[in-house]
Design goal:
There is one protein chain. By secondary structure, this protein is α+β, with helices and mostly antiparallel strands. About 35% of the residues lie in helices and about 35% in strands. The protein is built from three helices and seven strands. It has helices spanning about 1-25, 135-155, 160-175, and strands at about 50-65, 70-85, 95-100, 100-105, 110-115, 125-130, 180-185. Strands 1, 2, 5 and 6 form a four-stranded antiparallel sheet that branches. It has a three-stranded mixed sheet with strand order 3-4-7, with helices on one face. The longest helix is centred in the first third of the chain and has 24 residues, at about 1-25. It is elongated, with a radius of gyration of 31 Å.
Amino acid sequence: MMTKLVKTLLFLGILGLLGWLVWSNMKPKTQRISSHQILLERIESMGKLELVKYRLSDVIEHKELSTFLPEASVLLIIKADAVGCVDLSKLQAGDVKVIEDSVHISLPNPEICYVKIDHKDSKVYDTKMAFFREASLVDEAFKNAEEEITKQVKKSDILEQTKKNAEHVFKPLLEGLGYKKYSISFE
């Protein structure tokens, strides 16, 4: 009687194993296909000389308070780039004055070209009680971070650093053109 029970259990075990193997190999395989139609919308002439890039980090906790739902929050680590530049397309012929072996260039005032969040290096560190609100909460947090980083960049010395870097870039260029004396100003 014991051998019959062992044989039955062994048979059921082998049958179960075979069934599992067949089932695991017959799972539906999903395939994702994307189709793209890229259209060139416009071509613009650019004259902005990027002279300095600041890499910034922001740790932001963004909360959503609701009267009916529990407090939801997300914690993000944001990486962003801010670039200072001079728009050389604003340069006029009268902005360059040559007198014998000296030259004076009046460059346009430096500006912040852009502040851009690097989504590839940014991370969602933690979420609490977000559930179905997580996507919108993360999106709001990214927008809030971009606004705050832009404010902080405007308060920073990025424009002064852009001026210094412009002088470092133009110095060898002007010396290479044969000017022994040069000056650069910003207007």
